[in-house]
Design goal:
Elements (H helix, E strand, L loop, with lengths): L10 H6 L10 H4 L10 H21 L8 H16 L2 H7 L6 H13 L5 H39 L1
Amino acid sequence: MTFKKDDINTIDEAKGYSNYYGGVLKPEEKSIFDGSLLTEVSLIQDTAQLLNNWREAKEKIKKERMGLSSESHNLLASILKEQKAESIPYQVVNNLNDNKPVDKVVNQFEDILFAESDPDFDQKIEEAALKINDLKEKGEAIAIDKEIKKLKKNIMIH
């Protein structure tokens, strides 16, 4: 199933919702809905959405290396919007534990997004590309030599 924040209208629904990314919430994740800041349905829904995005982002980070996929980029943009606004959902989810999990996932995404390539690796790729090109040229030269020999044979036969 897919997460839909509109399916959530109460704190109990948010806690018991089973379509979060990664499944049902852990007890410590459910506890974020216990605070006094979530006084409106929209705040409960937005908090659930941010929590879902954070859970998904934690998993996506494990697969990203340099640069972000469009899906991860959209997740980062969504989370950054809440972070920069210091929204109530951001405050609630980021206080899930002492590690500031939303800030941590943003930093990890930014590290991936702005990662510089390894110069040694880039040099090896460049060297490999040159070798491939040399082999291609040698292969073409061999093919041309074979074609010339073939043509010479045909000329000698006639």
